[in-house]
Amino acid sequence: xxxxxxxxxxxxxxxxxxxxxxxxxxxxxxxxxxxxxxxxxxxxxxxxxxxxxxxxxxxxxxxxxxxxxxxxxxxxxxxxxxxxxxxxxxxxxxxxxxxxxxxxxxxxxxxxxxxxxxxxxxxxxxxxxxxxxxxxxxxxxxx
Length: 143
Known about the structure:
The chain is built from 1 helix and 11 strands; from the N terminus they run αβββββββββββ. Strand 7 (82-89) and strand 8 form a beta hairpin. The chain is globular and about 50 Å long. By secondary structure, it is mostly beta strands.
């Protein structure tokens, strides 16, 4: 029996801490502090993000995605109504966020060869047609 997509994504699982100095944001300021946790949740991957925004206020977001490339409804807020998660290979995990059928944000997570660094390129598709990329670099932490 072959591994499921969630099992294939195992190198992503764990707690990750933002390396603010290595991160580059075209839109907004990088968080002052951030953690990013990925863990298996049945046939899905649970993503938990905690950060201190540029205003110093704590933020928290949790969502799950099935890494099969299918678009699923999302009821976690007004900005996004559907998400799709795709495991391209053991070191590349993509997610897109949609509103009214249109992709409004896209994230590509890429693991380093040693599995200790995760670089997330987040692209925002703005209503005026502009596209902005933020690049966040995370280091694997001990849970």
